[in-house]
Write a structure and sequence with these properties.
Blueprint (H helix, E strand, L loop, with lengths): L2 H7 L5 E4 L6 H8 L5 E10 L2 E8 L2 E3 L1 H8 L4 E3 L2 H7 L12 H4 L3 E4 L7 E5 L5 E6 H8 L2 E3 L2 E3 L10
Parallel strand pairs: 2-7, 3-6, 6-9
Antiparallel strand pairs: 1-8, 2-3, 2-5, 4-10, 7-8
Length: 161
């Protein structure tokens, strides 16, 4: 099911922004003037063999040690790009919408995203952004919320194991 169909099915209140293709979430802010709205990215991990959709600010990286500890998992690793293409056949790689339930797995959201009233994310393609109230996103995604993001470059080598 496409993300827009999912949003319509659940009568979501959202705005669809379309424009020139953008390949980095920061470009979405600059190009679409969505200033003040967190641009979220979706990252899929595997924890002890189970997949999770992780949602965090685009300017951050994940501390996998925090995720592993929170989930009580022995091992946590990223799903590779090839598998991402298989999991999200209707999406351009890197433009996956942050709704794990849409793809059959739970959603984890970094607590820092709760600082804003709105959230924006890519809607399956690089030239589509979806903007909605954070409360609406949480209603639809049902994420487990905790802190696992850190500024890009701040994660230790240990966090990537």
């Amino acid at each position: 099911m496409r993300v827009v169909d999912f949003l319509e099915k659940f009568e979501a209140d959202y705005t669809l922004e379309q424009g020139r293709p953008v390949f980095r979430a920061r470009e979405v802010i600059n190009h679409r003037c969505l200033g003040g709205i967190d641009i979220a990215k979706a990252v899929v991990i595997r924890a002890d063999g189970k997949k999770f959709m992780c949602v965090l600010p685009s300017c951050c990286t994940m501390d996998l040690t925090l995720v592993r500890n929170y989930l009580g998992a022995r091992s946590v690793d990223y799903v590779d790009e090839r598998e991402m293409r298989d999991l999200f056949p209707n999406c351009q790689t890197g433009a996956e919408p942050p709704f794990g339930a849409l793809y059959g797995f739970p959603t984890l959201m970094d607590a820092s995203l709760e600082n804003d009233e709105y959230i924006a994310f890519q809607g399956e393609t690089y030239d589509t952004a979806i903007v909605m109230r954070l409360a609406e996103y949480e209603r639809l995604a049902g994420p487990r919320v905790f802190s696992f993001a850190c500024p890009a470059g701040a994660a230790t080598e240990m966090a990537w194991r």
